[in-house]
């Protein structure tokens, strides 16, 4: 499938985060440790998101493997902050490999990434997508399940808290596509929410930082696995892991 990581803590460089640890994100792009039957590499693009001092969300995305993009060595050092998101893509068969299909997706405030797949896409999402404003659908960034999930989640965030919105979306997707894999990551620059639904998810948290990632980038003993079918809330000094209240086979 994919790999993603959300970081909240002391200011760090995006380039440093990509190369950090013996199992760095760059290494995970060609030698991931735990894909659980979702492919073998994550070389179909990548993206980095960050939050500026005023809370505005910015991003850089590419359709090339992270190890092959010259911006990683030539320009990534200019991206630095205390809130970062990284996503490595392993494209699902039948979905395009292009810059606009790479996570993170988002808007002025939110960053979003999917590690997983919606089975039966696009037909399985047709009914849910029909509830969206037509103008929003016409602005879909890429014809992929992940981009569509972001539009569906954003519509729910307008009237729900992030945890409720994520839980509702998982429930709705599993109802129409029960074999889907739904590890989603959402961040607003100060807090993170994530779901573990089939794929691996880990956390590293203390009073100063919070990291949510598909797999650890080093051997720090503070890394903790998230049980399958659980919801994560993380911010420096606070980590809450609760069962996803979704009925599914």
Automatic annotation (TrEMBL):
Gene3D superfamilies: Glutamine Phosphoribosylpyrophosphate, subunit 1, domain 1. Keywords: Glutamine amidotransferase, Hydrolase. Its EC number is 3.5.1.118. It comes from the Bacteria. It is an enzyme of class 3 (hydrolase). Pathway: Amino-acid biosynthesis; ergothioneine biosynthesis. One of its GO terms (molecular function) is hydrolase activity, acting on carbon-nitrogen (but not peptide) bonds, in linear amides. One of its GO terms (biological process) is ergothioneine biosynthetic process. Residues 2-249 form the Glutamine amidotransferase type-2 domain. It catalyses: gamma-L-glutamyl-hercynylcysteine S-oxide + H2O = S-(hercyn-2-yl)-L-cysteine S-oxide + L-glutamate. Catalyzes the hydrolysis of the gamma-glutamyl amide bond of hercynyl-gamma-L-glutamyl-L-cysteine sulfoxide to produce hercynylcysteine sulfoxide, a step in the biosynthesis pathway of ergothioneine. This is Gamma-glutamyl-hercynylcysteine sulfoxide hydrolase. It comes from Rhodococcus coprophilus.
């Amino acid at each position: 499938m994919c790999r993603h990581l959300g970081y909240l803590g002391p200011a760090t460089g995006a380039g440093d985060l990509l190369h950090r640890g013996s199992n760095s994100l760059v290494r995970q792009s060609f030698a991931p440790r735990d894909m659980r039957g979702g492919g073998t590499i994550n070389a179909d693009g990548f993206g980095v998101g960050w939050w500026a001092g005023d809370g505005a969300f910015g991003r850089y995305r590419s359709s090339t493997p992270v190890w092959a993009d010259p911006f990683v060595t030539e320009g990534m050092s200019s991206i630095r902050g205390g809130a970062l998101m990284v996503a490595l893509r392993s494209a699902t068969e039948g979905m395009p490999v292009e810059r606009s299909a790479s996570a993170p997706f988002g808007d002025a405030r939110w960053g979003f990434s999917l590690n997983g797949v919606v089975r039966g896409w696009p037909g399985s999402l047709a009914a849910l997508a029909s509830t969206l404003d037509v103008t929003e659908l016409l602005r879909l960034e890429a014809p992929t399940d992940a981009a569509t999930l972001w539009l569906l989640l954003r519509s729910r965030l307008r009237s729900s808290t992030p945890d409720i919105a994520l839980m509702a979306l998982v429930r709705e997707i599993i109802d129409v596509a029960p074999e889907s894999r739904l590890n989603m990551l959402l961040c607003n620059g100060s807090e993170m929410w994530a779901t573990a639904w089939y794929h691996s998810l880990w956390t590293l948290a203390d009073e100063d930082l919070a990291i949510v990632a598909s797999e650890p980038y080093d051997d720090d003993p503070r890394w903790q696995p998230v049980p399958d079918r659980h919801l994560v809330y993380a911010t420096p000094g606070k980590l809450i892991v609760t069962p996803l209240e979704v009925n599914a086979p």
